[in-house]
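User: I'm writing a tutorial on reading structure tokens. Could you give me a worked example: one chain, its sequence, then its tokens, then a sentence or two explaining what the tokens reveal?
Assistant: Sure. Here is the example chain.
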Amino acid sequence: MNPYKILVVDDSIFMRKMITDMISEDPQFQVIGTAKNGKEAVNQVKILKPDAITMDIEMPEMNGLDALKIIMDIQPTPVIMLSSLTQDGARETIVALERGAVDFVGKPSGSISLDLHRVKELLLEKLHIAVKTNVLKFRSNPMWTPPIPRPKAVPRIEELPKVNKERTAFESNSVKPVPAEPQTAHQQGSSQVQQIVAIGTSTGGPRALHQVVSHIPGHLPAPVVIVQHMPPNFTKSLAQRLNSVSELHVVEAEEGMILQNGHAYVAPGGFHMTVARNGPGVYKIHISKEEARGGHRPSVDILFESLLPLKELKRHIVLMTGMGADGAKGMLALKNAGAVTTIAESEETCIVYGMPRAAVELKCVMHVLAQQEIAPKLAQAVCK
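And here are its predicted structure tokens:
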């Protein structure tokens, strides 16, 4: 079998050489060209027709985000973004994943051999996924069109706070987001939680979450807890991005937060997230640095397992696109423990049909749904 053809795009000569050397260590890949900016990348894609691309974000003349959009329009090709591990880099990476990038890898620092070794492992692993991803299928499907950002539902007069602080828009570079503060049981008031939605996802998840969370109504009478496999910084940017397109109030979870209906909580990268009872109708988030499960922290299974003793809650469980099987055993246990709804994303809309497939094979899935069908089904199940 001929090796997969890879195009490397980066404005740094040093980085182009380093990434090319990393990729060339795998005999299944061949670097057939390089480009120093997005404009060159677009031209090279037309000529070379690579099987996959590694793309830097910050480049002169045309950046990686603009190049990605053009490439996905003219010749859809799997793209792995090379992202800086800063907050700005995280925000741009989330946008890239929404625009069609398959995944991302943090850029190597070049100063620590262990760091370089880990980056190489991740890059090769993600390239093996990317070259087998049919991005044309997703680009030609109208369900992938990002929804128009919707305003938050207007609260009733009695729910209005004394000080109405505007939420910071995701794209604003001039104003820093106001950090969410953990809520106490007293602050949570009389709005008791009787249902909960739990979502697990991995590769392809940011785009899937954008589609699903943006179509969940803000008056949902349940909190939504989310595990997306991602490193620190990126989950905060993901939560901010989801908050900007959803009627739900979406935050990165913090220790001690009290779950509230109409809110969504994204597990912070590098930490497990669990839910525990904190009184009648009151539930609290716990964050921990316990050992990774199956190589993942946060782990979907650990979140799902924390819901097992909460049998008084109506539990609605979702697994979407992702490599591996994280969450499948937890979903099975929850179904056996009386979960009201279990949903797996269908193969036709998954970037990687791994985690949902594992759940289907365990026969614990009540509904196998295309991505655009998940939010309506959740709203129907929770609001009935």
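What the tokens reveal: Residues 140-149, 154-190 have pLDDT under 50 and may be disordered. Residues 113-130 form the longest helix (18 residues).
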